[in-house]
Amino acid sequence: METPKIYVVNLNSYNNGRTRGKWYELPVDFSRIKSDLLLDVEHGEEYAIHDFENFYGYKVGEYSSIQELNEYAEKLEEISDIEHLKDFLEIYSIDDVINNKDDLDFVEAENDEDLAQELI
Length: 120
Prior knowledge:
This protein has 120 residues and is of the alpha+beta class. It contains 6 helices and 3 strands. 36% of the residues lie in helices and 15% in strands.
């Protein structure tokens, strides 16, 4: 599985025409983002997420909570059948996969008879 990533910018810098942003793999310590992007009183304390990758249908917004995104990334790490994650996502939402990760089984079968044999 590819690690979820976010591109975070210092919103004050961005609004004033200066690029101050960086890609982060999740989970990431928010204090690192604050330090890297100079999120402080002098440079502006607000951030925005301007891009993201590998969230498998999870809704990421410009002002999503870093803590919630970290929790999501940690839950993804708990999915044992990562190689079949994309197959599960053709049927289930990412929230369903995360919430039922221990109950999902992937069965490869060429036809109904093979499927029946696998399930017996």
